[in-house]
Amino acid sequence: MNLEISYSKKANKFLERNLKEITEEEIDTLVISAIKKIFRIQKSNIDLKKLKGKLKGYFRIKKGDIRIIFSLKKDKVLKALIHDIDFRGNIY
User: Fold this and answer.
1) Angle at 58 between CA 77 and CA 85, to 5 degrees
2) pTM
3) Which of 22, 26, 49, 76 is the most buried (most CB within 10 A)?
4) In CATH, which superfamily holds the domain spanning 3-90?
């Protein structure tokens, strides 16, 4: 499976401000694990939730106090777009 991970401007801003909290490599690893769990390729204990309401079609990964919101798009290459990364109280 070919995977392309991209970040929105808002997600990149969070990463620039909070490098001590979480790195881009850690986020990439979490997203890859989440995708494997979604497609039932591999079991993992990642805290993943499919969102509802106005965020229908998005997924949320929870790691400590940090939340990662992303969506998937299937073309020839599976694309994961990270829309937002923020702390628990500020994300939704």
Assistant:
1) 95
2) 0.91
3) 22
4) RelE-like (3.30.2310.20)
